[in-house]
Amino acid sequence: MLLETEKLSRVYGGVVAVNEVDFRVQEGLITGLIGPNGAGKTTLFNNMTGLDTPTNGKVLFEGKDITGKKANEICRLGIARTFQNIRLFKEMSVVENVMIGRHFKVGDKNKGRFLQSVKSYFFMKNEEKTIYNKALEYLDFFGLADLRNEDAKALPYGHQRELEIARAMATEPKLLFLDEPAAGMNPQETEHLMEMISRIRSLGVSVVLIEHDMKLVMNICDEITVLNFGNKIASGTPNAIKHDPVVIEAYLGSEEDD
Amino acid sequence: MSSVAVFFQHLTNGLTLGGIYALIALGYTMVYGILKFINFAHGDILMVGAYMGMFAFDFLRGDAPLGAWTFISFLLAMIFSAVFCAVLGMFIEKVAYKPLRRAARLAPLLSAIGVSFILSNGAAWMWGTQSRKLNYPFDNSPITILGISITPHQILVLIVSFAMMVALTLFVGKSRMGKAMRATSLDQDTAQLMGINVNVVISLTFAIGSALAAVGGMLIALDYKCYPTLGTMTGLKAFVAAVVGGIGNISGAMLGGILLGLVETFGVAVLGIPQGYKDTIAFVILIIILLLKPEGILGKVEKEKV
């Protein structure tokens, strides 16, 4: 198991956003996390990536307990993510956004990475070049290299989503969390995105995605976990999920409700 | 004196004053850019910087007469003072602001005002309320270049402040840590998700801002001496400069500082505003800017984050 949560709960005041969820991610697979609005999907993401701390329970990554670690530490262990409401560094150029993703990838820890990062421009132009070129590779992967000098905020919506994924990929994650990557995309853009996600997996990166576009989820995911009102109600292959009566009830409401 | 020469004379004076304002305004704006709060103790750090520089300079210089050594020891004193204040700034952040980072927005602001009182009263307690002279490290009699009379002090201010602004712009714009700083100011959570240690970035921001304030403080003290409330009015005006330029924006702080220096100088010299009302000019400009363009000259309208 690449990542798993053990009875993870997150309570805000009296509201239980996530309730004792055991979520599992197998290495090399694309795992879907689905559920109606307010099911706790993003909260679960936040608790696994260090933006939020679980009230109870544990998060294990490659067998190590990472519960309560800070986001920058979790990033360095090999977990990256994107956001539902795109969070690029809007005032920075496209290539700079990706370069930030390489921030901690260079420098020799033993020689004081902090000092190196401070003097990087003045004395380490070669190193800056390496970062820049590497960033271009990631942009190229998503077909964004031509837009490198644009401000991130100037990109069309679909490109912004891709740039956010490119930036996350630049941290060289083992595991990539995508929060509604297809939201707001037109069918062609979604098509392209699905292709990109498959290519990311073929690079050896495991992917977890929250998505409402069922066609995308069912086509691309190897495993699916379903949340409802903070509880895990099902997990399994897309086919099994499609025919799971509990899931159908959660999405369509039970017949008695009518 | 021809009117052209007069103009350039005022321009020089204005740029000198503005350069100092800009150095200090940078500290306000950098901290605001990252933490979204006004570090009201910044002006008092400038005062501590002036005292530290004075002590170091007197110690290094000894009884030596004016000469190359006095100038070198002044520069060394400036470095010492900058380092001292950088450490002081980081220490204040750790003790007085960091514990309040998740608290209501008003809390760190009040804490900053408290720190400001501690510093100025502490200085009065330790070093007395009498002003002390920071001696010029050179003969400060004016020299005439192209019809403009300029003091060596002004030349020093112009060189030091503009060199520091260029260095800071390059650092923030180009270096890896500078990029991390900009990223942190744009979106702290995301920056952290990119592996950036936000605490390091914040410490560094305070260190740089305080070091610049220390240098600014010494440059002011050469003309105005050292006293415990040295930072109050200067700090306030530099804050105005930062707001006028667009708080949170580094180029804005430089622009605002220089603009303020120029307007004060020309206001007194050309518009004939009495010297005693000089300080009012800054605040009148502040009011006008806040009415016309509340986000400042280079500032951007910020959408309130939900």
UniProtKB/TrEMBL annotation, chain A:
Coiled coil: none annotated. SUPFAM superfamilies: P-loop containing nucleoside triphosphate hydrolases. One of its GO terms (molecular function) is ATP binding. It comes from the Bacteria. GO terms for biological process: D-alanine transmembrane transport; L-alanine transport; L-isoleucine import across plasma membrane; L-valine import across plasma membrane. InterPro entries: AAA+_ATPase (IPR003593), ABC_AA/LPS_Transport (IPR051120), ABC_transporter-like_ATP-bd (IPR003439), BCA_ABC_TP_C (IPR032823), P-loop_NTPase (IPR027417). Residues 3-254 form the ABC transporter domain. Keywords: ATP-binding, Nucleotide-binding, Transport. One of its GO terms (cellular component) is plasma membrane. Gene3D superfamilies: P-loop containing nucleotide triphosphate hydrolases (3.40.50.300). The keyword Transport applies. The keyword ATP-binding applies. Pfam families: ABC_tran, BCA_ABC_TP_C. This is ABC transporter ATP-binding protein. It comes from Bullifex porci.
Automatic annotation (TrEMBL), chain B:
InterPro entries: ABC_transp_permease, BCAA_transport_permease. It is found in: Cell membrane. It holds the Pfam family BPD_transp_2. One of its GO terms (cellular component) is plasma membrane. It is a multi-pass membrane protein. Its main location: membrane. Belongs to the binding-protein-dependent transport system permease family. LivHM subfamily. The chain crosses the membrane at residues 45-62, 68-92, 104-127, 155-173, 194-221, 280-298. Keywords: Amino-acid transport, Cell inner membrane, Cell membrane, Membrane, Transmembrane, Transmembrane helix, Transport. It comes from the Bacteria. GO terms for biological process: D-alanine transmembrane transport; L-alanine transport; L-isoleucine import across plasma membrane. This is Branched-chain amino acid ABC transporter permease. GO terms for molecular function: L-isoleucine transmembrane transporter activity; L-leucine transmembrane transporter activity; L-phenylalanine transmembrane transporter activity; L-valine transmembrane transporter activity.
